[in-house]
C-alpha cells in the first residue's frame, strides 16, 4: 500500500494589505509608553470676566467719543458761553497734529478743521459729547501756536488769549497738550505749560500730554521720547497733581483706546448731566418768556389801566 505525500500549498501571489512601518523608538525609550501633550490649564472665569469687562469699557468709551459734535465757535474769550460742563482743552503747536488727533479720537474725518496751512485756524471751537439732550463734556480746540508763517502780532495776541483762558476759564477740568514725539517739548510748549502750571500743581486742572506722530519712531526712540517728556512733567508733579503722558498716532491708532478711556472718565455722570440740561432748559424758557413780555411792553405786575366809556379807569 502506497502512502501519498500531501502536496505543499502554493505560495499566494497576493501580497495583502500594506502596513505602514512603525516609527523607530528613540534610544533609551524602548518599552516606554508614548507621552501625551500636556493639558492646558483651564481659563480662569474671573480673568475672562475681567478681560471682557475691560473690552466693554473700551468700546463704551470709543462710542462716547464718537458722539462729539460741533457746538459753537468764538473769536474772543468773552464770546465763549458760560457752562457748568467739564471742559477739556486741546492745545499744541500748529504742526503737532492737534486737529487730526481730535478727529481720530472722535472717529470722524472733519469734526475739527485741519488746515493744510498750519496756523491759519484762529478761532476757539467747542464740541459737545454725550447724549444730545444732556451733554456731559465739552472739548475745546484752541488755535495752534508757534507757526512761523503767522505774523508776530498775531502770535502774541493768541498767546495772551491762551494764557488768559488756561488761567481763568472756570469750568476747565483738563488740558490735553499735543507734543511732537520726534522733537519733544519745545520752548513754546514749555511756555504753555507755565500758563496752566499753577492749576495743575494744585489739582484743579488735569494734564495729559500726547506724544503725537509716534508711528515715525522705532521702539527705542519711542522709549526715549517718553523718558524725555516724563522728565519735563516731573517739574509739575505734586501730591495733588493728576498728570499723564502717552504715545499717540493718528495713522496706526496708537493710544486711541487708552486716551478715550481717560477722557470718558472725566465726563459728568449721567444723572448730573441730565440735571444740568433740565436747568439750562428751564432758564432758556424763562428768558424767552421775559423777552416776549418785554417785547409786548406789558408789565404783568403793574398792568396798564383800561378806560371805560365815560373815560374812567377800569381795573383789569
TrEMBL record:
Return the GO cellular component terms, semicolon-separated. Answer: cytosol
Pfam family for this entry, one: MMR_HSR1
Cofactor(s) demanded = Mg(2+)
What are this entry's molecular-function GO terms? Answer: GTP binding; metal ion binding
Q: Where is the composition biased (Polar residues)?
A: 1-15
Keywords, sorted A to Z: Cell cycle, Cell division, GTP-binding, Magnesium, Metal-binding, Nucleotide-binding, Septation
Q: Where is the composition biased (Low complexity)?
A: 25-43
Task: Report if keyword Nucleotide-binding is assigned.
Answer: yes
Q: Cross-referenced HAMAP family, in alphabetical order?
A: GTPase_EngB
Q: What is this protein called?
A: Probable GTP-binding protein EngB
| Record organism | Aquabacterium commune
